[in-house]
Amino acid sequence: MGDWAVWLEWGALLGVVAVAWFASGPLARLVRRMNGAFEQLHERPQSVVALAFVLGALGPFLFASAASWPVPRVHDEYSYLLAADTFASGQLCEPSPPCAEQLEAFHVVTRPVYASKYPSGQGLALALGQVLFGEPIYGVWLTSGLLCGAMAWLLLALFPPRWALVGLCVVFAKFALTTYWAQSFWGGSLTAAGAALAFAALVRIFERGSFTLGALLGVGVALLALTRPFEGVLAALPLAAALGVWSVRRLRAGAGRELASTLVGAAVPLVACALWIAALNRAVTGDPLRMPYFLHDAQYAVAPPFLWQEAAPRPHYATAEIERFWTGFAYDLWAEQQNWAGFLQRARIKLGTWWGFFVGAPLALALALAPFALRRRWIAFSALGFACVASGVLVVAYDLAHYLAPAAPWIVVLTVAGLRESSRWRVLRTSRRGRALLAAVVALLAAECAVRGYKHVRPETAFEQRRARLEQELAQGERKVLVVVRYSADHSVHEDWVYNGARPAEQRVLWARDHGEAARERLRECYPGRAGFLLEIGPQGASPLTPLWP
């Protein structure tokens, strides 16, 4: 956000606090009613988890229906959609398509097979939406529901009902409704849900282990491995350490049967996850231990994703736009952080991104007071988990919020613990003012959620909206169409039009890159029977289609 937006956010915080302070009666009564209803539900935790799942899945759907239906626009989104289309068709990957060089796309492997480079978790979620409801975006909303349900289960294990409700309000407002985690194909919710599930299971295992709890912990860690392997390992380290401490205690207590049952339960989903990853790796790269990500980067990347790695030799590029991305934007971002000044500058940007996405002005006081709650075991554990993930992400070249997704449950726990600490202040100890302040914070979170959602609604003139409309128009014709896209030299590499599904030859509209007259003739031979058009993309956007052949 710009400086004016930051000041507006802080001004709004002061405003709602003032309202809560001087008009606390109505707000306190509202919170008391909500607490009463939630405490009744608290007696049935399964109902709370189910309700949180339903609201978490339904909320972003209703917002999209009212505001703007999500349309993919970022390179990564199209790559995840390719994975979804591949999995939905029952395949791990597809054969390399004819004229593969002209069909090259960002973050996609086109040779020796055709597949997304990314870990499979988000693609599987999108495939589920595609199979069950006909559109991949429903899979995103199912992951939002899973995040809310998992967080409900976690918060009920750590806090009294009143504070668990506050935590759920934070989850709904900050992550599950209007952020890009819920309104794009990029992901974030599934990773955070995995971390929340694993943490909640661990907390209950410390009370009494079981096969079911071990299995749920294993499922949570598996979701981390399937979505963000590097950050997932960082998040799993404190979980594994805590499980090790518990295991030693159970052995000393002579509870070997309980220990074995729990560990076997955890092993089942983890082994299944490892076998799936190995099978996918082997199908795409030929090596069960080599991820598609590394095969892709060996073919395209110059700068590595981690700051401690050396730059690779410049590969041969068939496509100018992909070359500009990897030797320009991606390389410059990595090179900028190869000295301490650049690293610290980018670290400041990362911290600002995380602050705006996960905390912001409404939760600033809560996070500031969280250290006073570290005397509680699981609050201190949350701080440790956050530190493990955040320190690792600082040495990744990029600075997007979903990189920190494994730490999202711990951030929520810390903010709720901080809000709970504020209720111990003498000036807020009266139930009326304390409840009113909580209502004010939640109201501001809700307002921030709505403003953020509508602020990110893309205009009809945005390139991805124009691409979607053009594709829809061409798909309604009698013949299949091949669109050859030519970019001007000053075109932004972040606004790319050339993406296709898992089976390009079967698509009504096929997108390809312009590699010259001879390449167009090869395309015509590779995909016969299609009407051919040239689409030129310049600084002012797309020009009208030019027929290439009848």
Counting structural domains, the number is 2
| Fraction of residues in β-strands | 5-15%
Helix-strand makeup class: alpha/beta
Shape summary:
globular
Give me a quick take on this structure.
This protein has 21 helices and 8 strands.
Helix/strand layout:
Layout: H1 3-22, H2 24-42, H3 45-66, H4 75-88, E1 94-95, E2 108-109, E3 113-116, H5 121-133, H6 137-158, H7 161-176, H8 180-183, H9 189-207, H10 211-227, H11 229-252, H12 256-285, H13 292-300, H14 320-336, H15 340-359, H16 364-369, H17 377-393, H18 408-422, H19 431-455, H20 463-475, E4 481-487, E5 509-513, H21 517-526, E6 531-538, E7 541-542, E8 546-549
Task: Tell me about this structure.
The chain has 550 residues and is of the alpha/beta class. The protein has 2 domains: 3-69 and 137-277 and 339-455, no CATH class; 463-549, no CATH class. It is built from 21 helices and 8 strands. It has helices at 3-22, 24-42, 45-66, 75-88, 121-133, 137-158, 161-176, 180-183, 189-207, 211-227, 229-252, 256-285, 292-300, 320-336, 340-359, 364-369, 377-393, 408-422, 431-455, 463-475, 517-526, and strands spanning 94-95, 108-109, 113-116, 481-487, 509-513, 531-538, 541-542, 546-549. The strands form 2 sheets. Strands 4, 5, 6, 7 and 8 form a 5-stranded mixed sheet that branches. The protein has a 3-stranded antiparallel sheet with strand order 1-3-2. A hairpin with a 3-residue loop joins strand 2 (108-109) and strand 3. It is globular and about 75 Å long. The relative contact order is 0.12.
